[in-house]
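Protocol step 6 of 9: fold each sequence in the batch and record its structure tokens directly after the sequence line. For illustration, a two-sequence batch is reproduced in full.

Sequence one:
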Amino acid sequence: MINYVCKYAPVELFKGFGQECAVLEEMPENFDKSDKIAHANLCGFGKSVIQAVLEGKVEELVLVNCCDSMRRVYDIIENTKKCKFLYMLDLPHEDNECENIKFAQSILRLKKAYERYSHRTFDRELFIKSFAKPESERKPYIGLMGVHVSSILEKTIRENMQMDVENMTCTSGRNLIILQKDLRNMDDETLFVAYAESLLGQMPCARMNNNTRRNQLFLDPSLKGIIYHTIKFCDYYGFEYASIKNNIKVPLLKLETDFTSQSAGQLLTRIQAFAETIEGSDDMDPTKGISEEARRRMESGVYYVAGIDSGSTSTDVVILDQDGKIKSTMIIPTGGGAMMSAEKSLEKAVEKAGISKDDIIRIVTTGYGRAYINSGDDSITEITCHAKGAHYLNPNVRTVIDIGGQDIKAISIDENGAVKNFLMNDKCAAGTGRFLEMMARTLGLSLEEMSTMGLEWKENIVISSMCTVFAESEVVSLVAQNKAVSDIIHGLNMSVASKVGALAARLGQDNPGEYMMTGGVAKNKGITNALEEKLGAKLYICDEAQLCGALGAALFAYEKCREA
């Protein structure tokens, strides 16, 4: 098996040797082996290639000198002597007649090198037969674009999108416009020049000197949304994303990974929320419709629906009556597993409402623990649910800010409460509820005490680090310097506000309307005051702020019943 890493790799050449080829898309759990011999700032994909070689998963590998990272990867792998066949293909960065000839010569050098290594004979007819027919007309689809996407992440995306997904990243999307009948009439020299021209004539990757034809990717009328993937330390595609985000008219989601398997799981909520934004949350699970028993109860005129928000810190429940009015709410600490907490919170909400659990005809779950709750009829991401709940509480809200236990979300919504765009910070605990809990513990305070003590500050202390561990050390140092606790808390509040404000600002300024803060941190007066200062705008905060996700879930349950 010959592995390759670039769509410009001459896969068909190896078919002429009777060899199979596969994209090297190994996404390791970590880089424990490659980190020992590779530079810390080498991109995650480069490290994954080295890791696969060191783990003995790759014996024959063809690289392309498309960027500095691949050149470094080649040097490192060559030094390990772990590959039986390792070749660096010289790729032109232009697409013209002169470069076609040069690339054809590069391919022929690769051909000779593989003949010497394998002692195989090149079969011209097998080579020609390997060329596939041009692609047929596309159906509506989601474009997966940017830099290399692993099979793990691509599978996650496909499983959560009802619409077709087309991988158009730099590894995939090979489309050679060349016909078998034309090749058969060529001599060998002309044949390989035509092959080189076909390879270079593909949709150019972002690394090509002239990649203006890539604009066609974003102008396809069948394209209904873009998931744009970048890898940490890969500047090329980061620049392209920045250049297109303000010009395209279809929904756009940016995913950045370090190319480890852990990163795919962290991105699940974003992917599901993007699917709901494009395809509609009501259609996420069409098999779970309204049961006949539920319909009979609806005909009686008295029925209830519930939303359960299973978060990392608390599990919240909202029960609505047949008129869409809030009947009961409940908030309990999450503990003992999502399922157990959900059942307990729902039981308490039912008891508080003075009704029977059988009176609830539909339950929608949301939050990080929603996948582990079996009692729900539908499952919708907290992003979509927070947008729905915020619109219910204040129809003038256009930006929702939610500081959760382990992430921060900034959500842009339209006049109907639908998600227009969203951003999340979920790679570390910086600025989250967990961050505040740790800082309170370090200061020997409760969260309630911490929420008010920072209001009466005198010295403007700057907490320079947002990393939870480093910030904790900084706070300990400030305490040792006898700095006033109120001043330290104010510094922490401003630090969190800066992080959250920057996330909200990245949504853009073209979304006029009110700001609303949801989640338990909305009760922290010090944070809200600091955030209002950073935003230069007033935050709408209501008593139901922490229940916004559960409220949105309940509203989706209610609407489903009304449509039945």
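Sequence two, same batch, same settings:
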Amino acid sequence: MGGGALLAMMLATTAMAQDGPDPTGDIVVSLPQGRAPQPLETRHVLDARDIALVDAVAADEILRRLPSVYVPVNSRGEAIAFVRNAAERQVALFYDGAAINVPWDNRLDLSLFPAALAGRAQVAAAPLAPLYGVSALGAVSFTPPRPAHGHVRGMIGSGGLREVEAVAPFTRGSTDVMIGGSYAARDGERIADNADLPFSQRGALRTNTDREIASVFGRVGTSIGDHLLSVTAFHVDANKGIAPESDRPDGARYWRYPTLQHSLVSANAGLVLGPTTALDLVGWYQRFRQTIDSYTDDTYTVRNSQEANRDDTVGARVLLTQQLGRTRIIASANVLDSQHDQRDTTFTRGQPPALLPAFLHYRQRNWSFGLDATTALTDAITGEIGVGYDRVYYLETGDKPDTPDAKGWTGRVGLSWAPAEEWRIRAAVGRKIRPATMRELFGQALNRFLLNPDLQPERIVSADLGAEWRSDAAGASVAGFVQDLDGTIDQRNVGRLRQRINLIGSQVIGVEATAYWHPAPEWTLGGNGTFARSRRKGTTGDQTDRLAEKPDVIGRIYGDYDGQSGFGALAEVLYTGRAYSADADGVLVALPRSASVNVRMSQRVRFAGVAADVFARGDNLFDDRIVPQIGLPAPGRTLRIGLTISGG
């Protein structure tokens, strides 16, 4: 895999500014002097307290609270993140600076990424700088927990939920150590009373939605003079069932994931080379193992096939920052080398063959180079220009024909104007490419694949115009955005064969707004909403121009009370507007609009230097029918209670 050469590069950073802790949480740089310039993309953050109030088991529950992030669950059972209706293969996921999408299909199931690993979550919306790397129209990043005191949490809830997590920090001089672990299991998800599930459904729990997730994780960070060094690692072991599409009498997927393992080791270094020069390095190794069992029917007793996947990925990022007067220049290089091994086995009357088939081997290497320059045009106006070049090599193609490399240029230009301390207005336009994934190119059954030597990467031009206002007691932002995509990668049937092709494309036009207000020290009121018009381009006649699973509105309003007496309360409404989904015949049909009303109450008691928090939470209290994809409803009314014990 070329791993030895890449591992030699591997030290890493996710950006600690010299004047304090990392203000952004994904890809920024160590600064020899001054503070980082304000980013030109739209960013929103959930801090440790925001995440704690969600009482989440997995990361998908956290991300649903971020503006412009929509997290549906697809028919493969994967919780995936859309950003401003940019689909999951266009959204980069980072953990402490390391890219954690599985390159085989450039996505990750967020329902199997434990919430205990996340101390902070952030979304960055397009247009993004070239330094983010290949296929990054939007970005979602997590940083590990870094609590001042250790804690232990236990929780039980609907559907047989039981969960426990623990995190312990230690400090020795300039070195910080954090270790933790979590375990969660459930028997299944509750379904709403009015859910329309005529097939493959029995009882109050959604068919085949049990889940078990265990994790261990840790981080070591230290400073040597002005230099910052850290190592982060986690291991996740999970299994779960996949709910069948219950709107159809046949053709549903009867799947289980009996094993899933996800491991990451990343090393980070932020090096100050001089008063105006910094070098940031990040490198990682990711190991992903997954088995998918397919069954004949909804009894899940007779297997008809099995898919075994093994993925090994090595990645590195280098950022060299140079300050030249009022101009900051960042030269960036990203590389990702990934091997995917897959074995597809057909069963006969539930039994595997005497001799298992061999694994097929696939391998891909991504390279990305960029140069970004930011300059203070005046005391109030900052300008930026960035250019980059992305290339993807398909080095091994299993039993499929060789495929040409994918390549293309990227770029961004923007302006930021701060007419007063409280105000900031910004505008940016950028271009990205999204090459086909290995699964899109090669993930077809044996002898059913037809090479398309003319397949091109998707090309996306995006623009963002935003304004932000902040004061001590309140804040608001609004941003209009456009995403214009050419060459959408899809597939067609050619006789009995399948072939990937480029369609004309699609366009998303929308506006995003956020606001918060502290009417009193103990109160926070706020909300966000994203309104988007998503349409196909080039439709004619009676063809629909709608796009599947792209809602026209998503939003959240909330009220948060954190009393000095230790009593806390949170009420929120998560709203999803009109979206469309394909039925059993492939026809797009309208999905119901929905609103989930959620309430949380807690009481903190302190004794002998220990704080104990008792909490209760109810999600979707009115048992609304929430359907992100036809035949696959989200959970109905769900209750949780728990206890957190922490030091300090």
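Proceed to step 7 once all outputs are recorded. Observation for sequence two: The mean pLDDT is 91.
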